[in-house]
Design brief:
By secondary structure, the chain is α+β, with helices and mostly antiparallel strands. It is built from 4 helices and 6 strands. It has a 6-stranded antiparallel sheet. The longest helix is centred in the last third of the chain and has 23 residues. The protein is globular, with a radius of gyration of 15 Å. The two termini are 25 Å apart. The relative contact order is 0.21.
């Protein structure tokens, strides 16, 4: 994680966007100009970084019709090239990106934080109509 923390250390704005980012203890908080927020958890898993962000919690996911939830996940995965949507071990709907740790550079990190925050926030809004924070 040291390499990751060096890359994100002075990052405050995501280039080409109006998104603001703060990082602390393995979490990047991405703030949208309209007040919406998305939190991205970063951890190292072997030789890869795993970036994840919650779309909806396990209660809301569990209350959805399984076929509808599966269709939403499948539909979003068809139209996103970088982000994978899935249910995690806790039953939450998350977006995730995996990246080879040694290959990550600052431009890729900025891109991944931007696209993960935007795609998860978009799906969150489609499913709930509000910011879940």
């Amino acid at each position: 994680m040291k390499r990751f923390e060096q890359l994100i250390a002075h990052l405050r704005d995501l280039p080409g966007t109006k998104l603001k980012v703060t990082y602390k203890n393995g979490e990047a908080a991405v703030a949208f100009p309209d007040g919406r927020n998305q939190t991205i958890q970063i951890r190292r898993a072997g030789e890869r970084y795993l970036l994840t962000s919650r779309v909806i919690g396990s209660t809301r996911a569990g209350n959805m019709e399984p076929a509808d939830l599966a269709c939403q996940i499948w539909s979003r995965n068809r139209v996103t090239d970088v982000v994978e949507f899935a249910l995690d071990e806790s039953g939450r709907l998350i977006g995730r990106i995996e990246q080879v740790a040694d290959a990550l550079n600052r431009n890729e990190l900025e891109f991944y934080l931007t696209v993960l925050a935007q795609e998860c926030d978009r799906l969150e809004y489609l499913l709930t109509g509000r910011d879940q924070t």
